[in-house]
TrEMBL record:
Record-given protein name: GPH family glycoside/pentoside/hexuronide:cation symporter
Record-annotated membrane-spanning stretches: 45-66, 94-116, 122-145, 165-182, 194-215, 246-271, 283-302, 314-333, 339-358, 378-400, 420-442
UniProt topology in membrane: Multi-pass membrane protein
Subcellular compartments: Cell membrane
Record-linked InterPro entries: MFS_2 (IPR039672), MFS_trans_sf (IPR036259), Na/Gal_symport (IPR001927), Na/Gal_symport_CS (IPR018043)
Gene Ontology molecular-function annotations: symporter activity
GO biological process, one term: sodium ion transport
Organism of origin: Neobacillus bataviensis
Length: 461
């Protein structure tokens, strides 16, 4: 991808109508990422502890170290993306060139080579680090692509609602299909290890093909005046200083993705050991994603009726109440447990889905405040924070389970069961309460955003 020092564009098409075909094309990219990376974030800890043979504490530490490496790599990747000029555009080429390496590394993460204990650690670190960096090379430009498709806030919300529908369709497939496939293939092959490897191969190849489809069916139409040679890593510090909406979203992403990842990661333990129904794991996972298929198409309507902050407040409050309900619902009350899971998912999916529509606003606001449009760099930092949040799904459950005496593959002591319940209900509820406080600090309302866009379009004429 050739780089140029300066490129001058016009912005005549930045608010044109986005047709449904392109919305489907764009949304297929998030379906792809969820098929691969949500499988990793939801099941990799369990795979490491119960299949690969790594202790819960060691696996949790690995998740923390990998996120540290992400902290170093993400901003540099974002800077590279912002400087990119190619015949395919700024963001789309990364989808094309990263698709199959992403799938291959995911497959390798769920492959169990015949190595010694030390060899297993080295192999796990190399493959997981490689996967995380490759994911950044895809996810940063994919996320920033929204701001290059349109500046129209209504179109952004519509585009995001379709994207979140497909993302959560991926979540449904992963939650229900992955344990079903891994179990069925594992029984047929008489090997749990082969079951997981083949399942990840199916998810990986499907994800790679969907990324290619996304590349072919999207268009970068927002063109602005930019001086690419002036974009540098240090620009992110100025964004943290002047772009308060961006800072608020960074904190919010850590919390929401941390909550969702903790809930998803510990769910398999909670259903298997506390409830004593491993056969319900796929249904528990399904209820964590299924509501999005109904709710996401109504996201633009909910936003119009309630407004940004009220929509988030209502969603988070529902999730807090439903999550805490698991503390008092008996483990034998299966129906009540599944209802609580469903209600918690309703709130978290709406809040988690809507916050993606706010990121393009922070890019425009940052451009307005600094004169630099840093879509790649801002998404890289958002990407770091949400991946850090996702890492909590491995770090927190792993360390808490180790502290409470969890032993993989055995009947758990009452103390260990208490640790699983705390991780399932108490920790997420505390983080949700903090999220409720944080979102109140987001001050870029509809009127202010319209003023920012008007100023930017005047400048870029």
């Amino acid at each position: 991808m050739a780089l140029k020092e300066k490129e001058v564009y016009n912005s005549n098409n930045s608010s044109e109508k986005i047709y449904f075909k392109e919305k489907i094309g764009y949304a297929s990219g998030d379906l792809a990422c969820n098929l691969i990376y949500q499988t990793v974030s939801t099941y990799l800890l369990f795979f490491y502890t119960d299949v690969f043979g790594i202790s819960a504490a060691a696996a949790g530490t690995m998740f923390l170290i990998v996120r540290g490496i992400d902290a170093i790599s993400d901003p540099f990747i974002g800077t590279l993306v912002d400087k990119t000029i190619s015949r395919f555009g700024k963001f789309r080429p990364y989808l094309l060139y990263g698709a199959f390496p992403f799938a291959l590394l995911a497959i390798l993460c769920f492959t169990t080579p015949q190595f010694s204990g030390g060899g297993k650690f080295i192999y796990a670190y190399i493959t997981y680090i490689g996967l995380s960096i490759t994911y950044t090379f895809i996810n940063v430009p994919y996320g920033a692509l929204t701001s290059a498709i349109t500046r129209d806030s209504k179109e952004v919300v519509d585009l995001t609602s379709v994207r979140m529908f497909f993302a959560n369709l991926g979540g449904v497939i992963v939650s229900f299909g992955v344990p079903l496939l891994a179990g069925a293939i594992g029984r047929t092959a008489d090997s749990t290890k082969i079951g997981w490897q083949i399942t990840m191969t199916i998810m990986g190849v499907a994800g790679a093909l969907l990324l290619i489809f996304c590349f072919k069916n999207t268009k970068e139409r927002v063109k602005v005046k930019e001086v690419h040679g002036n974009i540098k890593f240090a620009d992110i510090f100025e964004q943290f200083r002047v772009n308060r909406p961006f800072v608020v979203l960074c904190v919010f992403f850590i919390l929401i993705f941390g909550i969702n990842s903790i809930s998803n990661s510990v769910g398999i333990y909670y259903v298997t050991y506390n409830v004593g129904r491993p056969d319900l794991v796929k249904w528990y996972g399904l209820l964590g994603s299924l509501p999005a298929l109904i709710l996401m198409p109504f996201l633009p309507v909910l936003n119009k009726k309630l407004g940004k902050k009220n929509l988030m407040r209502v969603s988070l409050t529902i999730t807090i109440a439903a999550t805490l309900a698991l503390l008092v619902i008996p483990a034998t009350a299966i129906s009540l447990i599944l209802i609580a899971r469903l209600l918690a998912a309703v709130g978290s999916l709406v809040a988690g889905g809507f916050m993606w529509a706010l990121i393009p606003e922070t890019i425009e606001y940052g451009d307005y405040k600094t004169g630099k449009r840093l879509g790649g760099l801002i998404y890289a930092m958002i990407g770091f924070f949400f991946k850090f949040g996702m890492a909590l799904g491995g770090i927190v459950p792993g360390l808490v389970l180790q502290q409470f005496g969890y032993v993989a593959g055995h009947s758990q002591t009452p103390h260990a069961l208490t640790g699983i319940l705390i991780t399932t209900a108490v920790i997420p509820a505390i983080l949700l309460a903090v999220s409720l406080l944080v979102i109140n600090l987001y001050e870029l309302d509809e009127k202010r955003y319209a003023e920012v866009i008007k100023a930017l379009e005047m400048r870029d004429r």
